[in-house]
Amino acid sequence: MSEERTHETLLRKADEEIAKVFNRASACHHRLGYHIMAPAYWMNDPNGLIQFKGDYHVFYQHHPYSADWGPMHWGHVKSKDLVHWEQLPISLAPSEDNVSLQV
User: Fold this and answer.
1) Confidence band (pLDDT; 50, 70, 90) for 32?
2) 3-class secondary structure for the chain?
3) pTM more than 0.85
4) Cβ pair 95, 10 in contact under 8 A
5) Contacts of 55 by beta carbon, 8 Å cutoff, 6+ apart
6) How far apart are CA 53 and CA 58, in angstroms?
7) For residue 101, what pLDDT is reported?
8) Of the listed 15, 45, 55, 81, which one is catalytic?
9) Active site residue 15
């Protein structure tokens, strides 16, 4: 597999793309104050709510490259109080080396 398609490279590229538009997106007056939101563009299917070492974690589907539907990545946020959420780096990106079980 080429260097351009490794999972780590795809995660890094997705995080860099979000960083490019984060300031503009976070300044939008339509952003929610008390709910989970992707750092930019859109999110879908929030799930995987777990508590680990005193923090709540939620994972969600996310396309970090545009407001259009595209290859799904998995975003990640955490909170101590379920009100204030901290964005974490993208957890999963679609890549050939990220394929696990195939039935």
Assistant:
1) low
2) CCHHHCHHHHHHHHHHHHHHHHHHHHCCCCCCCCCCCCCCCCEEEEEEEEEECCEEEEEEEECCCCCCCCCCEEEEEEECCCCCCEEEEEEECCCHHHCCCCC
3) no
4) yes
5) 78, 79, 80
6) 14
7) 44
8) 45
9) no
Residue 32 class from Cβ within 10 Å (0-12 exposed, 13-18 middle, 19+ buried)?
Answer: exposed
End-to-end CA distance of the chain: 23
Identify the weakest region by mean pLDDT among 7-11, 61-65, 89-93.
Answer: 7-11
CA nearest neighbour of 62 among 47, 81, 79, 78? 47
Whole-angstrom Cα distance, residue 93 to residue 14?
8
| C-alpha distances out from residue 58 to 14, 40, 103, Å | 18, 16, 27
**Domain locations in the chain as residue ranges:** 3-98
19 or 97, which is more confident: 19
Place of tokens 């909170």: 79
